[in-house]
Amino acid sequence: MAEYEVKIVDSFTSERYAGNPCGVITRAEGLSDAQMQNIARELNLSETAFVTPSDVADVKVRFFTPKKEIPLAGHPTIATMHTLVEEGRVEVGAGPRRIVQELSIGVLPVDIERLADGRVRIVMTQATPEFHRRLDRSVYAQALGISVSDMLDSVPAQVVSTGTPQAMLPVRSLAVLERVRPDLQHLSDLEGVDHYFSTHVFALETYDAANRAHARHFGPSSGVLEDPVTGSATGGMAAYLWRYGLVRETAYTVEQGHIMGRPGIVEVEVEGAGDDPTAVRIAGSAVTVLRGTITV
C-alpha cells in the first residue's frame, strides 16, 4: 500500500463550496492508469488531476472523470496551478509567471499572477478552435426535455473543440435553461454516437448583467451528471459565439453553476480574424477546501 496527498479545490470562485470542486494529486509518480481511474471514481468529482514530471514541459497533467480520461480540462487546470502555487512548487512574484503543461493533446501554456487582494489568477490557453459535426436540433431538444422552439434557430447546434470535443447547444433564454431536465441516458447515447465528451447548453441571458452568457453542462457518458462550472466547454462556447457573431468582444465573463447552487465566474479572452476564432483563453481563481491522503 502507498499513500498520496490529495486536495479538493473549488475552481472559478474565491469562496469555499462554490464553483467547481476538483481533486488534485500533485505528486502522482508511481500511480498506474488504473489507479488514477480508481482514485477519480472514489473521489467522484467531475474531474481529478494528476501531476507528474515532464520531459518537455514544466509539469505533465492528466485529467480523469469518474469513468474516463479526458484530454483537456479547464477547472482542473485552474485547481492544479492553484495547488502548485499553494505548495510552493510554482513561485509567483509581482509579475505574471508562465508555466507550460504537457497534456495528452500537446503542450499548452498557463499564465499565473498574484492579484492585489492575494488571490492567484490563472489564465489557461486552450487548443486552436475546431468546428465539427452539426447536430439535429430536434433530437437534442428532446434529450434536454425542451421544445425545438426553445432552441436558438439562427445558429447551428454543433460539436466544437478547443481541446475537448463538446456539443454546443444555444437556447433562447435563461428561463429555458432553468427548465432543462435532460434524459441522461439519451444524452449519453448521443455522446457515443457523435463522438464527443459532453453537452454544453447556454443562453445569452444572465442573472448578472455584467456577464455575457449563462451555461449548464452535462457529461453522463463520463460519469458527470451535471458539471457546476466548465472551463473547457466555456472555451469551446467562446469560439462558437465568435464564429457565429453572437459575441465579438475580446474579453468578457460568463456564469455557470447558479442553478445548481454552486455559482462560478469564468473570464474569457478571444482572438479572431473575421469569423475565425484563432485563440481562446479562460481564467479564474480557486480556493482549497480539503487536504488529506488517499491509500492505493
Can you describe this structure in just a few lines?
This protein has 296 residues and is of the alpha+beta class.
Describe this structure in words.
It is a single chain. The protein is α+β, with helices and mostly antiparallel strands and 296 residues long. The protein folds into 2 domains: 135 residues, Diaminopimelate Epimerase, Chain A, domain 1, CATH 3.10.310; 151 residues, Diaminopimelate Epimerase, Chain A, domain 1 (Roll). The chain is 21% helix and 40% strand. It has an 18-stranded mixed beta sheet that branches. It is globular and about 55 Å long.
SSE topology sketch:
Layout: E1 3-11, E2 20-25, H1 33-43, E3 48-52, E4 59-64, E5 69-70, H2 74-86, E6 97-103, E7 106-114, E8 120-125, E9 130-135, H3 137-144, E10 157-161, E11 165-170, H4 174-179, H5 184-194, E12 198-203, E13 214-219, E14 224-227, H6 231-243, E15 251-256, E16 264-273, E17 276-284, E18 286-295
Parallel strand pairs: 2-3, 4-6, 11-12, 13-15
Antiparallel strand pairs: 1-2, 1-18, 3-4, 4-5, 6-7, 7-8, 8-17, 9-10, 10-11, 12-13, 13-14, 15-16, 16-17
